[in-house]
Amino acid sequence: MAEPLVATYSIAACDLEAGQWGVATQSKFLAVGSVVPWAEPTIGAVATQAYANPRYGPEGLALLREGLSAEEAVARLTAADEGRDRRQLGIVDAAGGSATFTGSECMDWAGGIAGECFAAQGNILVGPETVDALARTFVESSGPLASRLIDCLAAAQAAGGDRRGQQSAALLVVERDAGYLGLTDVLVDLRVDDHPEPIAELARLQHMHHLLFGATPRTEWIPVDGDLRGELTDRLDRLGYDGDLEHAFATWAGTENLEQRVEGVEEIDPVVLAELRSR
Questions:
Q1: What is the pLDDT of residues 101-110, one digit of tens each?
Q2: Which residues contact 170 (CB under 8 A, 6 or more apart)?
Q3: Domains assigned to the chain
Q4: pTM, full prediction
């Protein structure tokens, strides 16, 4: 049976200050997020593609967990794989070290760039400008890692992207205990499996994810004085949430999946207030 050809471009990267590692990818391939991205907080991130060997993901992370560098992990994985000439791989390790590998039989254009805290690679591209755009955008950007990685994908697409077109995209970012309710290390795990504009759709989903699961610094929350309390009560009543304000507010927030941004009614997250006012 022929192996799946995950012709795509990707970037594995980390933000050491934030303690985040992640991968973003786009491809003319159904559900690219099911194959390419792998990451573990304080350990590293792996992107596996071309005639992809999905075992590079868990096995690469295991090697990093043992203390191997990104370069050493890439060398170990590819040396043990008879199909390496058709593989493509990018790894970033716990210290921000990176390495990228493109087998000699990957379809043109194929190649990669590795730098501090990132490994960018792609195959069946219009040319090297796609990978150049991934690398340049990451180096020149700042802010949350998830947003930077989506910006990298958008820049790569604008530079030409996968020469077969677009179909799917994915974003995975991990951070220790930073996921849902602090009970998971998966900060962001978003996939667009089949869409005419997957990167734009991925950006829309990331905006929604931040709205629902992001965090506003407590110093920016707004005190709920008498006037604002009255406004909240009125707006919730008109939406069908009447009775005690704290109960009504909590019920509405839970219905809208905003409960992680709510803690009583003495203060209110400005993102939550804006969302309530928009209804």
A1: 999 999 999 9
A2: 23, 24, 25, 32, 33, 36, 37, 190, 191, 192, 202
A3: 5-213 (3.60.20.10), 218-277 (no CATH)
A4: 0.91
